[in-house]
Amino acid sequence: xxxxxEHLALSERKKQTDNEDQQDMQDTSATQNLVDSxxxxxxxxxxxxxxxxxxxxxxxxxxxxxxxxxxxxRVNLSVAMVAMVxxxxxxxxxxxxxxxxxxxxxxxxxxxxxxxxxxxxxxTQIPGGFLxxxxxxxxLFGGGILxxxxxxxxxxxxxxxxVSWLIxxxxxxxxxxxxxxxxxxxxxxRWAPVLERSKMVALSTSGAFIGTLFTMPVSGILVKMYGWxxxxxxx
Length: 235
Known about the structure:
two-stranded antiparallel ribbon, 10 helices, elongated, MFS_Na/Anion_cotransporter, Sialin-like isoform X3
């Protein structure tokens, strides 16, 4: 009798073990299918023509373009200020003309104007991470660059009003741009697979260096052709 009971118990235990193994195999298969569908998810599944580019790479490219714009807005004043505070000599058709500097700022005031951006920039570095986790990195990233762009277009008006207005505007622009790095990391933590995360973050932030490299010479050309305000309307 005892042997029969023991045999029944062993049979039940074996049956339960087989059921658990089968369930584990089903869970593993479902998880693998989910990973595969996520890794190979592309714009084609959303009706986009860019079917050959995975969606996560499109997000990375857009982030890179955002950093490009952000750094173009940041460094354009460095070039424009040369024409704002120095006499500019122009040559054309055998004529030489000299434009008198519009602003008489000493080097100390110039440094204050250029550095005022970072007074605001430093204040939103840590809060930007909390805001990105609460409201989403995508909205914060785009909103910061949009606000900085609007403030940049107002730079000529604020500058001609008073230098205090310019400093206040640059501080606000720094506050707006202070959230872009933390919000970009929030976006990449959702879109980038673990094995591609470092590559995608590096690609997205490379837009900062490309934007700086592009803006410096182009700003000089714009100043020469159209005057220093054109820099803030173009970028």
